[in-house]
C-alpha cells in the first residue's frame, strides 16, 4: 500500500483503481472545507496550476489523525461509486478526508486524488529501498537487487513482493514471485532496426522468424486489420456499449506467443517451442482469435532483402505498422522488461530510404490550464 501511494497510484500497475474524480468535484470539496468561494479557488488554481498547492494555502492545521489504512480504504470505497449520485458521494468522502488533514497532508491527498502526485519516485527506486530494508544479512546487496527487480518484472505486485521479502529474503523472492496466471508480466521490448541491410550484421546464420505487428481493431466484413489508431475511438470501459454487439470497433485477438502452459512457465523455452504449443492448443476463429501472419527464413537465404521488403510492404498495406523479426531457436527465450536483440522491429518510418522530413511552422498554441498553464501562444 505504501509503495503504491508513493507512486501516486492505488492498486497494482496492471489493476489500477480509477478514482475518476475531476477538478469540479475537488474544487467543490475544497470550497466546503475551507469556506472559500469557488471563484476564488478557480482564480488561485489558474495561478498555481495545482489544486494541492491551492488547498495548502487555505487549509488550517488540526489535531485530528488520518491513518494511511483509513485513507486507502476510503479511496477504494470512493472508486466504487458510479452513475447517478456518484459525484455527491465522492464529494462527501473527499471532504471527510480533508477535514482530518493538516496543510501538508491535504496538499498531497488532493494531488493523489487528481492523479498529479509529482512524487518523482520510480518503481525501481522503491524496489531498491525495499531490498535495503528487508534483505538478509548474508545476502549480497547487488545480487539481492537484481533478484528483486527480476521478481517484480515477472510479478509486478508490490504486496506479493513485500510479503515474500519479509518471509524469505531478497534472493528467494525471485523464486517465490514467479509467473502467475492473471498477473501480466512486464513486456519484452524489441530493438528498432532502421536499415534492413544491418540485419546480417546483427546475427549469424541463425534461423529467424518475422511477424507482422499485431493490431487489435479488425474489420470483420472485409477481413482486414484496421490501423492501430482506430482502437482509440472505441468506447471507454465504463460505457455499456463496449460489452454489447453494437460497438463500432470490433476487437480481434492476434496471438503470437505463449508464456505459460499447463502450470509451467515457458519463459525460458525457445520461441519455436512456445509458438508450436500455441498453435497446437488453440484454434483460429476468423475475426475473433487469429495467429499473426508469419514466415520463417534464414539470414543466408538468397534475396533476403527483397523478401523482407515485400513483407514490410504487405504488412503496411494491410494496416499493420511493420514487422517483428525474432530468433527461433538459440537464445530465443522471453526476456522480461528488457530491450533485447532477440527481437527486432522494423517499420516503414525506420527505413532511411522510406523516411523523410518536414519543415513546419508553429502558427498557434493554447495557453493551457492547471499544470499546463504558462504556455505562451
From TrEMBL:
- Identify a single GO molecular function assigned to this protein: DNA ligase (ATP) activity
Give a single Pfam family match: DNA_ligase_A_M
The protein's UniProt keywords, in alphabetical order, are:
ATP-binding, DNA damage, DNA recombination, DNA repair, Ligase, Nucleotide-binding
Which SUPFAM superfamilies does the entry link to?
ATP-dependent DNA ligase DNA-binding domain, DNA ligase/mRNA capping enzyme, catalytic domain
Question: According to its record, what are the GO cellular component terms?
Answer: mitochondrion; nucleus
The source's superkingdom equals Eukaryota
What residues does the ATP-dependent DNA ligase family profile domain cover?
Answer: 244-377
Q: Which GO terms describe its biological process?
A: DNA recombination; DNA repair; Okazaki fragment processing involved in mitotic DNA replication
The family note in this entry says: Belongs to the ATP-dependent DNA ligase family.
Q: Which PANTHER family would you find in this protein's record? A: DNA LIGASE 1, DNA LIGASE 1/3 FAMILY MEMBER
According to UniProt, the name of this protein is: DNA ligase-like protein
